[in-house]
Every structure is written in structure tokens, then in C-alpha cells.
Amino acid sequence: MSQAAAPVPFVEAQREAALPVSGIAWLDAARRDNLDAFLAAGLPDTRVEAFKYTALRALGQRRYAVGDAAAATLAIDAAALALPGVDGPRLVFVNGVLRADLSSLDALPAGLSLQPLSQALATDAEPLRFALARAYREAGDAFVQLNAAFAAEGVVLRVAAGAQIEVPVHLCFVGAASEGDAMWHLRQVIELGEGASLSLAEHHLGHGEHAHLGTVVTDISLGERAKLQHVILQSAAEASTLVRRTGVQLRAGAHATLHALELGGALSRHELQADVAGDGARLETRGAFVLHGRQHADTQMLVRHTARNSSSEALWRGVADGRARGVFRGAIYVAPGADGTDASLSNKNLLLSANAEIDTKPELEIHADEVKAAHGATVGQLDPRALFYLRSRGIPEAQARAMLTAAFCRAVLDDLPNEALREHLSDLVARHLPQA
Amino acid sequence: MSSEHTETTAPVENAEVIEALGRRYAAGFVTDIETDYLPPGLNEDIVRALSARKGEPEWMTEWRLKAYRHWLTMPTPDWAKLNVPAVDYQAISYYAAPKQAPKSLDEVDPKLLETYEKLGVPLHERAKLAGVAVDAVFDSVSVGTTFRKELAAAGVIFCSISEAIREYPELVQQYLGSVVPVGDNYFAALNSAVFSDGSFVFVPKGVRCPMELSTYFRINAMNTGQFERTLIICEDDAHVSYLEGCTAPQRDENQLHAAVVELVALERATIKYSTVQNWYPGDENGVGGIYNFVTKRGDCRGHDSKISWTQVETGSAITWKYPSCVLRGDRSVGEFYSVALTHHHQQADTGTKMIHLGRDTKSKIVSKGISAGKSSNSYRGLVKVEKGAENARNYTQCDSLLIGKQCGAHTFPYMEVKNPSAIVEHEATTSKISDDQLFYCRARGIGEEDAVSMIVDGFCKQVFRELPMEFAVEAKKLLEVSLEGAVG
Questions:
Q1: What is the per-residue pLDDT for B10?
Q2: Quick one: pLDDT at residue B254?
Q3: Interchain pair B411, A360: CB under 8 A
Q4: How far is A309 from chain B (nearest CA, A)?
Q5: CA distance linking residue B81 with residue B92, whole number of Å
């Protein structure tokens, strides 16, 4: 499981970095505890199953300044943050620092509470204890341990029971060029009360060229019959590293839909862990990565069904060009007694270049018998018949390829109800693909 | 009994004498007596003594020692979804005549006999399968000898690996360990150090082996013990079909089986390897049973070669087995058809690896897992397409059938693709026998158990089709027997 701490600069840098002090005993203890766990285990190597296809050797050789003092005043154009179709309240963080000047928290709809983590801790820390006092001990938890140790800022979002929040909330995480390479950590706690509904856009973007390391750990819990529409757009700076862990918990009758687009970053990793823990709960996940150059994207999804008659459906696509490497793990776990579970997963990938690589691992772990579970995964190229069809109608090959590749990715956005956002994301994907 | 058979079969005849010999020579390791015991334990002296006992040349002894030294440096693998109790490697005797064999069928577990009855195993074979020490010559002995003559006429070498090491050292030296290197994995390394016997098949250029080869018919391969080593070589344009194991459960008290099978297919050669594994699975409470830790790998070394694995796995308490194909030659083909059934407390973690290296290589995987009782059944597979494997094609289908509430069925496929012209597809489903299907059968007057075995048979059809006919029939019966008590 854990190996002896490797004397790598990255780990040494964490040893020297000062932990944030909150004055809250349980929180400071948890930070210390998670840092110790990280230092003891070090960065995982590829023998750790969760990092089998994501080598951290290069990252381990680097050093990052903890936080970025200049981030509070960096000039960022607020217009560049805008997302079509997402015009509700907005919280903006630049290199991990809250930017009130770019955020807009006035006129929150009734039933929505949206606070920076620092403020929530200062006013009433106790409700956050369950989320923030956790000890992470799994072999693949390195970045989460770091986050738990160092994250002092983030988002606390709560929707009161029964509240229907119509306007989409915009959470913006900007990695911005500054002096040297910085490391920043943000923590989000999102809670939807019974019967509440929320639409959320999580937006990671880059501002100027930099090679920062960012981590974001998010805990989402949905009360009974709550509904969540969660869109993640990751277009971080080309040279940056971004590691996220999103935990979603669904109670009875809850329904969560997640759309994730991974477009940016030199190394980006998303660990999505969903607990479908209530009877009749439903989880839909859709996502795509579109990679080129030397990008490396790794999505690790685990869906656990522990209640009766719950369902999950996953649709993931990947495109890798240049020397890029795309990694996908999609695991479905059905606990003993979780009868009536209906779980499916589809993962399709396109390899566009001789130097790109796709590694995919769909998994099923089934411990109940009244279950329907299926998964499928493919790696291949565009359908030659579809190409031929387009060419026979006078469309040049390059353009035909671009059209088909864009359509291949767009499948994951088809059921996104926010039309303006859907069009914008489709455009982004099309622009991100090799040009016709 | 012909002289080449003496090595492994002689001791069966007189267990007491052997025991006495074993005691007498236990300390010295200098005896040249062909069959007796080595004391339990594992160290370099034991490996040397074992090699000496078998009259092996120096290079073979060194090869074993190299494997042993490497084994010492390796950790026990723990990545499989198995709960493996620690094995005490020092408590095992690495060169042993068969354990005290029952003297007549009366001493054999009646349950075992009942199973033979159901499978319709001929009476005289039952005793042999049950490991009864008999020196009567069964039909199969004479059959075995006739086969040998016919094979020799065709130019096919089919003998025990010990014999091959003595008679055809240049062939063995060239190929042994070339597919599964001594340090490949923990159990392969252990096997390389201490393998006791096994089969050797060599089919020369252009020869189509005139019959299906089987360990079943080769008497001297019986009781080869825990560490079997099989090496099959097919030269250019040659063809062989090899059957391993037998369809009836074998009485075997050995706790650990760590076998290695290596296949080499040269230009346009075809090797078809079928296994029906039904080692003792332990009782319904999970007590006893064989740990089956097997490394099987085929190397499609030549262009247009083909290796096909078919396995029906119903036995063993724990199965850890991944028959693989290295598709090195251009246009080479790898296939894997598997039915794995677990019941009671059995655990199986089995699957395949298809490594595409050559151009236009193809692989196909069909895996059917059936879990019943409190068992755990996992498919674990790897499809790897390397950079040079232009136009590689893989299709994988893994289906799991659950019978009962307390069993588990798992699928862990790995796909690693580095070539943009490759097409790799994987599909998996998990379900139970549907009530509709059962109702349909019941409504037509078919009893519940029969209905279940019919449905299971249909579920496995794709794999059974690949088995030689008589094996397919027995495999079907075997599933029925293994599933007894799973329903209702």
C-alpha cells in the first residue's frame, strides 16, 4: 500500500510549507494528520493501482510556492470568465485566492446560501466538521491529503430544503500567470436539502501561461429527492497541473446529472466518487476529454450502489491527438443487497495520432443478483463508412473528419438542458479538435 | 510398462517401499533412485537435489537455481481479487511420490464416486481418477502406446518434459522459459525452480498432428504433482490441438498447484489448447481445496500463426490464471474462450492478456463467468496494442451470471492502446437468470434444476462450441454437477 517516503523535492517542499492555522482544534488536527499521512506515503508511483497510468515522477521533481501573494491583485478581465447561459451568482478564485471584486454574491435567490469557506468557518465551523475532519488513508489519496492539509479557502454552498434555484451558480477557478510556480488548494462543500434543486457550473480556466499546481476537493450531498445539474468545464492553462476529487452522495430519490469536459492542463486528473446510497436514486454522468500536444488527462470514476432500485448511467468519450495520453477508469460497484440496481457505462475513445495513447479500464464489481449491470469500452478510429458518406457528398476529408470527431464528442452534451451553455461547450470542443 | 514410463508411475505401485526409501535417503540427496521423497522445505540444496534426482544436465540445474534466486526476491502478488491464505512454502515437499493413495475404491470419498456416476465416467477410469493405487493396465495405457507410435510416424514428439530435457536438450534449451521467463511472476518463478514434470510437444514443420493430444492419455503425466511444466512448440505450418485435464474431479490432496504452460507458434502454425479444470474445490463450507496458480502464455512468434485457448474452470478453491497470447507475428491471431464457474466458497480471478505487437493482429475474448453460493468470480483481462501493431483488432465479451444473493461477479478489463489504427472493443454484462426464462421453462414442465442447467448451457454455448466434441459434452455435464444445490 504505502511506500517509504521518497526523497523527492515535491514532498520535501510540503514538509517545509507552513500549514494554515484556523484556531479550530479539530480542523488544525485534521490538517496535521493528513499532512503526516501524505509525508509518510509520498507521491504514489505507478504500482499504486489508482495511478497505474499516471506517472508522477516529473511532478515529484518540482517545487511550488505555497499560495500566491500577488493573486489578490492580479488584473483579470471579468468578461473572460463569463459562460453563456450561466448568469447567476458567481464566486471567483484566482490561484486559490478569493476575488470578491470578480465575484457577484448580491441578490442570492431565496434558499441559496453561497459563502467562501473562510467565512463559513469563521461564522459556524461545526456543520463543516464532518467534511473537513476526514482522514484520507487510501493508497491513491495523496492529492486529497495535501488538499485536506492546506486548503483554507473554498466554497460552501447550501440549498434549503424544497428551494428550487433556477439561475445557474457559477464557480470559477482561475489559474493565473504570476511570479514562479504556485501551488493552491480549494475545498468545496455543497449540500442540497430535501427536494431542493440546483444548477451548477464549475469552471476551471487559465489566465496567461503558467505551470501551477491546483487541487480542488468537492463534497456534494443530495438530500431526498434533490436534483442537481452539475457542469464542469476544465480549460486550465496548457502547462498547468490540476487534480480534483469530487464526492457525490445521493439519498433516496435524488437525481444528479454531471457533464464534464476536460480540455486543458498538462496533467489533469479527476477522481469522481459517487455513492448512490438512497433507494431509487439516479446518477447520470457524461464526460469527454479532448487532448493534444503532450497533455495527460486521467478520469477515475467510481460509482457505488448501496441502496435498492437505484440506477446510474455513464457516457464518456475521449479523443487523443499528438503525444497526448488519455486515461479512463469507470468502476461500478453494487453492494450486497442493492437489489434492483440498473447500472451502465459506455466509454468510447478515438486515437488520432501514432504517438497518442488511450488506457481505459471499465470495471464491474457486483455483489447482488437482482441487478442489471453492463459496460462497454472501445478504442478506435472514425467509422470509414461515415467518412465515405460525407466525402461522397463533396466534403473534403479533413473537414469530414473534423465534423465526425466533433459529433463524437458532442454526444456527451446532447442532453444538457441549458441550451446556451450546450452550444458554447460544443463550440469549445470543436475549436479544440484538430482543425479541418 | 515401458521404461520411459517408470519415472513417475512406478511409485504408485508400492507406497510403503517408497516411504522406506524416502526415509533412508532423506538426508543424503545422493541417491540415484528415480522416485522417492525429498523432505519438505525449499532451499538451493533442495533445488539441486531435485534436479539431480531427475538426472538433469548442468544447464537445467543452473536454470532452476536462477529461478529460485529470483523467486526469493519477489513479493507474493496481492492484486487479484482473491483472499489467499498464506502458503508455507517450507512445508511443501517439492519432489514427492503421490501421497498415501487409497488402496481401493472403498476408501474413496463416496461423494466423489457419486460424481463419477453422474458424469458417466467408465468404471475402470474412476479408480484412476480417484488416485487409487492400482497396477492393472487400463485401456488407456495401451491406447497411449498406440498413439505414441502413430505420433512418432508423423514426426511429432510427445513426451514428458523430464524425458525431453534428457532426449531433446537442444529443443528444450532453445524454448524453455522463452515465453514465460523464469522471473515472470512469483508463481512462474517458483515453478521454474521446482517443476516436477509435465508435457513436451514438438510438431515439426508442415506437420498436422494426426490426433488431439491429451495428458489424459499420456500415463506418465499422471501424478506430476503440484508444479507442472508444459512446453508446446509448433514449427512452420504445423498444427496441434492439445487437451489438458480431465472432466471428472481428481482426488488430489495437494494444496498448491503452480503450473506453467508455454506455447510457441512459428510461421503459419496453429495451436489450440483446451483445458477442463476440475480440481477439488473444497467442501460446501470452504474447507480444503486446491489453490490453482497457473501461468499460461502463448507466443505467436511467426507470421500468420494462431493460438487459441479454451478453458472450462469449475474446480479449485482458488483460481489465479490468465492464459495469454503475445501476438508478435504479423497477422497472428489470439483467442480466449472461457467458462469459469464458482460455487460455495470458491474464488476465481481469471482472464487473459492479448499483447498486440505485429501488424494486422487480431484477438478475440469470450469469457463467461457463473457465480453461485458464496463464491467470488472475477474476469481480469488486458488488451494491449503497442505502437507497431498497425490495424490491430480486438473484440472482448465478458458476461457474468449470478445465481444467489451472496456471490460476487466482477470484471476488470484493462485496455492500453498506442496505435491509432487499432480497434479495441470491450463489452460486459452482469445479470441473473431471469425469472421470465425460468418461468418459460417451468411452464413447459421442465424442473427448476434442469431449467437452470439449460439456461446456463445456453449462456456458455459460445465457449463449448470451441471445445472438441467429447469434451464439450462432458463439460456440459460437469457444469450441471457443479451447480447442484445452487438453486432452490
A1: 36
A2: 57
A3: no
A4: 15
A5: 25
Q: Which helix (H) or strand (E) holds B275?
A: strand B270-277
B413/A359 touch (CB, cutoff 8 Å), yes or no: no
Phi and psi at residue B236, in whole multiples of 5°? -50, 135
Q: What is the mean pLDDT of residues B408-429?
A: 95
CA–CA gap between residue A147 and residue A57 (Å, rounded): 19
> The dihedral of CA A52, A55, A57, A59: what is its sign?
negative
Contacts of residue B342 in chain A, CB cutoff 8 Å? none
Sole residue written with cell 487559465: A206
Nearest CA in chain B to A335: B408
Residues of chain A with a CB closer than 8 angstroms to some CB in chain B: 49, 53, 336-337, 349, 351-354, 356-381
Selection from A197, A222, A198, A216 nearest residue A88 by Cα = A198
Cross-strand partners of A221: A191, A249
- Mean pLDDT, residues A422-432: 94
Q: Testing the interface with A: which of B396, B407, B411 to mutate, by most A Cβ within 10 A?
A: B411
* Identity of the residue in A49, A359, A372 whose CB atom sits nearest the CB atom of B415: A359
| Cα A264 → chain centroid | 12
pLDDT at B105: 61
How many other C-beta atoms lie within 10 A of the C-beta of residue B34? 14
Residue B257: per-residue pLDDT:
84
A366-398 as b/e: b if 16+ CB within 10 A: bbbbbbbbbbbbbbbbbeeeebeebeeeebeee
Residue B341's identity, in one-letter code, is L
Instruction: Tell me the shortest Cα–Cα distance from A220 to chain B, in angstroms.
Output: 28
**In what helix (H) or strand (E) does residue B192 lie, and over which residues does it extend?**
helix B186-194
- Residue B90 forms contact with A (CB below 8 Å): no
Instruction: List, in sequence order, every beta strand (DSSP E) within B301-392.
Output: 306-313, 318-321, 324-327, 333-342, 347-350, 353-356, 362-372, 376-385
Interface check B387 vs A, CB under 8 A: yes
ipTM of the prediction: 0.89
Contacts of A319 in chain B (CB under 8 A): none
C-alpha to C-alpha distance for B39 and B33, rounded to whole angstroms: 15
* Longest CA span, chain A: 70
Give the other-Cβ count within 10 Å of A147's Cβ: 25
**Distances in whole angstroms, Cα of residue A112 to Cα of each of A107, A164, A423, A435, B45:** 10, 9, 27, 42, 76
Distance (Å) from the C-alpha of residue B244 to the closest C-alpha of chain A?
30
Q: Is the whole-model pTM more than 0.90?
A: no
